[in-house]
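We now fix the convention by which a protein and its fold are recorded. Here is one such record, which you should read through line by line:

>
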Amino acid sequence: MTLSDALSGVGTFTEPVYNLAPNPGEVAKLGFPVATNFFIEGGISLRPHSYGLVASFTNINEALKELDGVSLTLWGVPADSSHDALRFQQIPGEAGGSFGHASDARPTPYITNPTACGGSELNAVFSVDSWQAPGVLANASMPFGPIFGCDRLTIEPKIEVQATANSAETPTGLNVHLQVPQTYDNAYGLATSHIDDIKVTLPEGMSLNPSAGSGLGYCTDAQFAYEAGTFEPAFGSGCPNDSRVGTVHVHSPALSEEATGALFVAKPFENPFHSLLALYLVARIPDRGIVATAAGLVHADPVTGQLTTTFDENPQLPISDLSLRFKQGATSPLTTPPACGAFTAEADLTPWSAPAEHHFPPIPPFEITSGVNGGPCPTGGLPPFHPGLIAGSTNNAAGHYTPFYIRLSRQDGEQEITHFSIKLPPGVIGKLAGIPLCTDQQIAKALSRSHEGMAALEEADPSCPAASEVGHTIVEAGVGTVLAQAPGKIYLAGPYHGAPISVVAITDAHVGPFDLGTVVVREALKVNPETGEVFVDSTGSDPLPHIIDGIPTHLREIRIYMDRPEFVLNPTSCEPTSTASTVLGSGKDFVSEADDNPITVSSRFQAADCAALGFKPKLSFRLKGGTKRSQVPAFKATLTARKGDANIAHAEVILPTSEQLEQSNVGLPCTRVQFAEGGGNGEKCPKSSILGRARAVTPILSEPLEGPVIFRSNGGERKIPDIVAALHGQEININLVGWIDSVLKRKHGEVVSARIRNRFMVVPDAPVSKFTLELFGGSHGLLVNTTNLCRGRHEAEVNFTAHNGKRRDFKAPLKAKCPKHGKGKKKGRH
């Protein structure tokens, strides 16, 4: 390297340029003497982002004011013999030396051209400052390009991609090792092309692990820019440590030192790609003042979850060895495939020398050699499926309000949960009175937020009103022992898929830095019309999402807390029962429901302290209309119950002999098929089968249940058709089925009397404050008088059994309106 000096009045001098030991923060350092007593030094650094070289000669001695110009030449291969004539050699022990010497050093490149051709617009820029006007720069530039001959450059990369875990469906780190053999040892050959783009696609089945979101942070654009602009980042000023997901190690043939750094998660949607998933790479050699950065786009296939990472327009720097090591452990960012075998990633590298040329280096496969937790490898058949269920009330006191808890779970390596149904224990019911519904329009608003970045909006401004909220959920997802949690809320909603009422769970899919929007799952609620048992109907409910924006959920646990105050009511029966759930596994093909695998699980439930509940219902009867024999009066029964008592389980009424069935007024009964047609609950029964009306008032519903009393066939199970109180409500329908038969009294083996008996053998364990049943009279009446009702006393025998086992038996008179005889007196007893 030589320098030509021009000093006014002195002449032109040629001086050697030396490669000096760089100061901290410098890639290299140059120095040269001027005249006899001066020495100028200049540090060389990398320009941020473009990584071009910048040489800065500062604090040049002001005594050199007569220096008119400088021409500096740097040799590409300093030891080459072509430079011998200008090579300066110091004379040992003397101040001087001479030019014209051969080098005994090995020819090694000092400067190389870019490996990208073209670039006629490339310029070298000069800036000069003066002592007389500091800060007023004089700038000049000169063409540097174009570069040609790129077709002669080669690149033969090698790449390895290895999972750090060898068990199926397990959290795993990932080691990516890229080697690019270089030609720097050959000073007279061509350099290996630099890598422009690199794309790595992981094997299908290897996907992102939601567990990684637990405690994960992100790096903003500003923090990444700070990382790119400093050699020794101050603690907390650059990318946060909780956004680090791996380490970086880089070797370059141009330097002896290794560059080290980290991989960081970029802030979703606020990164160079405006994408959900992106990585920032930072590598440094602080002593050399080198900091290299790159941003990578991570694409997750929305159907399969397969991952492809692309780093485009990488720095034009020679790299011989690059290692990326993603962290291992329970919160590793990746999961291994769910099966054993050999799995191979794919790579596509594009050199700067030929942007249209792609290199696909073969990648050695990695092996998955065991099942989950080191167990046996999964077979090719149906994966196992053993879902778990835990359910119960916080306070199991009979008849009391209490929060109710349900926990559904599965283990790694099992089929994914696609749907589930839940049947609550008999008598575990919800008080719907006074709760407004989340409307279809409001649910549609929540669905419109099922896009990336919208969960935060749902958190701040819930779509459904707080007054309709009946509980909350916690959904746990991921693989391994540490799971990511996503909170949600449960709202009461209206009809859905044929059910008169539903619940909608709106979950904020916001885990760590990733906001995947809202997940809306609506579940149809049905009530068994005869037993009153409440169940979530999977056939009328939405499927659970398997993959969201390319991230498989790996749903592991659903916790449901129905904890609205005074919403869930315990039964008044203390008989052992259970919460049951039919959970559908995904089978072999998650996308298809045809091979879903149903498994039924249960959790024991039993209320307590039933004996503490009282039981004293009242029942009265009134006949309206004709009181004489053969007349057909209307009939009305009124039941009242005390608040806080046990609920009625069975009811039996035996009418006095004064009332019998009027067969001539009874038309053909409604068949069971007719009863179930349409919306059910007797909607399609013929009018001739309707005997009257019934009405039930309950504190748990907003409005009373009302409907016809229907004469319905029982398929020959009993001699006389049943009477069914088909009670309709806005939220539920109930069918109270009464069995009709006769209680015979015999004397000497002969029947001397027969009394009509009506038994309601199954009554829902639900509070009813008042119940009325009315039967028509006249030509449509069911009962006919066998005697004058105004003569004698006519009493019905009433037998009630509570759900807590207590009984109440009494007699109740059949009251009728009899004509008055005398002042204030009636003839006969009633």
